[in-house]
Amino acid sequence: MKAKVQQKLELQNGMIASDDADFAHFLQQLKQSSNGNLGMLDYIEYQKFPIEWKNVNDTSWLVNYTGDWSVVRYLADDAATVTESNVAGNTASFTFDGFAVGVFMQKGSFDGIVDIYLDGTKVATVDTYNATRLEHQLVYQNNSIGSGSHTVEVHVTGTKNASSSGYLGILDSFEYK
Ligand SMILES: [Ca+2]
What is the domain count for the chain? Predict the structure, then answer.
């Protein structure tokens, strides 16, 4: 979630005053970077992004799936669900406003290799095979993608580790801030 905030600049004896601590801090930085010359500005509109990680579960309506996926319950995963597919080309995508994102998946003995895309570009290939099941594994995280609207996608590839018995991509949740 983001909030657009419009604040009137108040200059009191050369000092910047605001009830909003984040906005006051932002203005102080702006003032320093402009050598204190803020006289030409009247209003500033800026966006506040969440500082804490926000979690979006695999079953959220914010997650869009292509192809057939199945919801499966595992108590140890986020919200006790995962959504899985083993069909090459199937995707799970999530669009958010923020500057950082993470992808949580389950690993296990039937799990395959997935690709992670960010804003349409492949940014990671993840082998989700593990001899024993591991819930809620952070398989991708990027903390410096620049503020704005972004889309992260998980692509089932139909490929796998030689040791794996299957091709599943098992999505647990996304996080963003
Ligand atoms: Ca989940």
Answer: 2
Instruction: Measure 49 CA to ligand 1 centroid, in angstroms.
Output: 24
User: What does pTM read for this prediction?
Assistant: 0.74
For residue 19, pLDDT beyond 70: no
Å from CA of 170 to ligand 1 middle? 9
Q: How far is the centre of ligand 1, averaged over its atoms, from the C-alpha of 121 (Å)?
A: 25
Same domain, 95 and 18: no
Domain hosting 116: range is 54-176
pLDDT confidence of 5, banded at 50, 70, 90?
Answer: low
pLDDT tops 50 at residue 2:
no
Residue that terminates a domain, selected from 29, 48, 67: 48
Distance 29 CA to ligand 1 centre (A): 39
Instruction: Quote the CA–CA distance of 3 and 47 in Å, as a whole number.
Output: 6
| 117 alpha carbon, distance to own chain's centre | 12
